[in-house]
Amino acid sequence: MEKTMTKTQEDMINQTIYDTLYNTASMIPKNTTIEYYGQKITYKDLLKIIKKQAQSLNALGIKNNNPVLTILPNQPENWELLYATNYLGGGYAPLLPSIAPTTLEKIISDLEVKNIFIYKDFYEKYNKQLNNSSLENIILLDGTETIPLLIQKLLKLKQKLSKNDSEIKTIEEQIEYLKKQQNSIKNPKLSLYREFINAGKDRIITKAQFEPNKTAAYITTSGTTGIPKLVEQTNEAFNALALEHKLFVNLGVGDRNISIMPPSIAYGAGAAHYALTLGFNNILIPYLLTDSKTFKELWLKYKPDQFIGGPIHAELMLKTLEETEGKEHDELLRLYRNAKNIVSGGAPLKKETEEKLRKYGIKIAQGYGDTETLGGTYYNIPETYEPFSAGRPFPFVKSRVCKPGTCEEVKDGEEGELHVITPTLMKGYYKNTEATEKAILINEFGEREHPTGDIVIKKGEYIYFVDRMTSMFQRMGFNVHPSKIKEIIDKYLNVGEECAVIKVEHPDEQYVPVAFISTKRNFDILKEKILENLKQNIDELAVPYDVIEVDEIPHNAGGKVNYSKQKKLKR
Predict the structure, then answer these.
(1) How far apart are CA 383 and CA 444, in angstroms?
(2) Quick check: 425 and 413 in contact, CB under 8 A?
(3) What is the Cα–Cα distance from 232 to 371, expressed in whole angstroms?
(4) Average pLDDT over residues 469-475
(5) Which three-class secondary structure state does DSSP give residue 204?
(6) Which residues of 341-368 are buried (b: 16+ CB within 10 A; e: fewer)?
(7) Which of 289, 191, 223 is nearest to 508 (CA)?
(8) In angstroms, what CA-CA distances link 543 with 402, 501, 509?
(9) Strands 215-221 and 229-234, sheet pairing
(10) Per residue in 121-138, pLDDT tens?
(11) CA atoms within 13 A on the CB side of 152
(12) Torsion angle in degrees (nearest 10) through CA of 435, 438, 442, 444
């Protein structure tokens, strides 16, 4: 499957991501590129918005190599800021709103961030970290920035009437209140997004030129150890991912793409770039999609050609078919079957779910990738679909399966650790040489090779996921590390007390972390202290769904926790 790049393909990769977007926009300026709550943005308009943002970022002092931090939902401004930052040669750093406050504090310090864009409802959670940092400017958004003023007013009126609450404040009122709460003149300046845009009006700026191997974005990953790291992704990596999708996936200009993955995860950032640069019509959904009713309504309304999600969304797809009857069932089935690309990534799909969908005539395109490779190296596309597989490598990807911890290849069909060589491989972890050297090896051919830490079986071109070398799993599409949760809980336990953290199947979320504790103390008080600490030090989605008291933690003959037996204990 591996191909050699042509000169034209190399030229496409070796440019800034802004230039890649600009080239597409120049060919189809009147095409809709983003839809958001009924508001449509053409490619021509998108370039204008990005230019305005770049002017305003420059007014804030953003220039070559400066980072811009965002904590925003999947709204247009979060996509646009990637390119506006890139226009000036800066580094885009989108963060999930579930990130732990202590992690945010570390990232702001490490990157020496001066400016952050944050959704107003997340501000209170991070108030302490934001106001005791190197930040100079905090720009607040409420998700209606793209929506016309009249619709904004109607939405606010509807919200007020539905809640029957005369105390509901506008974002303007809220920001004035927040300013009064700041207790020092040294606190960062609070501004509305509208004020930010107006500050750059008519400002003269210069577009940054392409520089090889320059960081375009910092994507946060907790890594296999659970320790937060910043992955530096380059222009070349983003562009290579777009090129590979252009060559490998049956999608093109005008295809409708429902986007639910925010650019704060590699999976979402990479998908946003290739969706824009390949000319898709992208319908942005800014909320977590976890219920079958909303899932069904989105498909019936937008009739997408592509949908990128995780295992939970494949489960929702199956659920909608089982819940509906008659014409609605037939229409849903037709839409699912006719979609060009339905993706389930981030974690393996249950075999029984995939099998049931296959019986309906629906092929789910599973894939494989990690943050270090911008979310994509393998893809099980419908045209060459192989059941229960993570697919074949993208055109410019090479791989081998080795004995874990070595570069010694195993035979075809044997289990081993997946190693990949790909143009989407990260530059490295920011200011973390030791971790980078473990994640990127220089092999015998002088290539940058990435041991993924995942156990697979390779059969010909196809790989089949077996297990992670760590206990990490996904909740709602985001990484959860039981070992990290256990590490924090263990600090509260006395000698003779024990904890085990495992993933447990959940009817709505696929998997959730559950902690089991064996203790002789007052369990309720201990549980309260543990949960309070966890909420401050790990992502919200990693906080255990439940903490349960048990008489003892089961062990195997080797003295290790018997996780399979633990799951069977009465909960």
Answers:
(1) 35
(2) no
(3) 10
(4) 75
(5) coil
(6) bbbbbbbbbbeebbebbeeeebbbbbbb
(7) 289
(8) 34, 11, 14
(9) antiparallel
(10) 999 899 999 988 889 999
(11) 11
(12) 170
Amino acid type, 24: T
Report the alpha-carbon distance of residue 414 to residue 425 in Å, rounded: 25
DSSP 115-135: EEEEEHHHHTTTHHHHHSSS-
> Would you mind telling me the total number of residues written for the chain in this entry?
571
In whole angstroms, what is the distance from residue 545 CA to residue 564 CA?
Answer: 18
Q: Is the pLDDT of residue 164 over 70?
A: no
d(CA 106, CA 95): 12
Q: CA–CA distance from 326 to each of 297, 323, 334, 340 (Å)?
A: 16, 11, 12, 24
pLDDT, tens only, 390-419: 999 999 999 999 998 899 999 999 989 999
Residue 398 in tokens: 């090479």
pLDDT value of position 558: 36
Q: In one letter, which amino acid is 491?
A: K
The runs of H, that is alpha helices, within 303-370 are 311-323, 326-338, 351-359
Helix axes 482-490, 523-537, angle to 10 degrees: 130
The residue with tokens 């070559």 is 64
Tokens, residue 382: 């419908």
What's the rounded Cα separation, in Å, for the pair 43 and 30? 6
Rounded to an integer, what is the distance from CA 532 to the centroid of its chain? 26
Residue with tokens 């018997």: 562
What tokens appear for 558 in the block? 């080797």
Tokens of 172: 């303007």
Within a 10 A sphere around the Cβ of 326, how many other Cβ atoms? 7
Phi first, then psi, for residue 487 (nearest 5°) are -60, -40
Residues 6+ apart with CB under 8 A from 347: 310, 311, 473, 474, 510
- Report residue 306 as tokens: 């592509």
Q: Rounded to two decimals, what is the model's pTM?
A: 0.85
What average pLDDT score do residues 50-69 get?
A: 96
**Contact call for residues 50 and 18 (beta carbons, < 8 A):** yes
Inform me whether the pLDDT recorded for 153 exceeds 70. no
Query: How far is it, in rounded angstroms, from Cα 354 to Cα 367?
Result: 13
**What is the C-alpha separation between 298 and 309, in angstroms, rounded?**
13
**Can you tell me whether residue 151 is helix, strand or coil?**
helix
Residue type, 565: K
Q: Does residue 281 contact residue 305 with C-beta atoms inside 8 Å?
A: no
Rg (CA), the chain: 24
| Under 8 Å between Cβ of 366 and 391 | yes
Cβ atoms within 10 Å, residue 286: 17
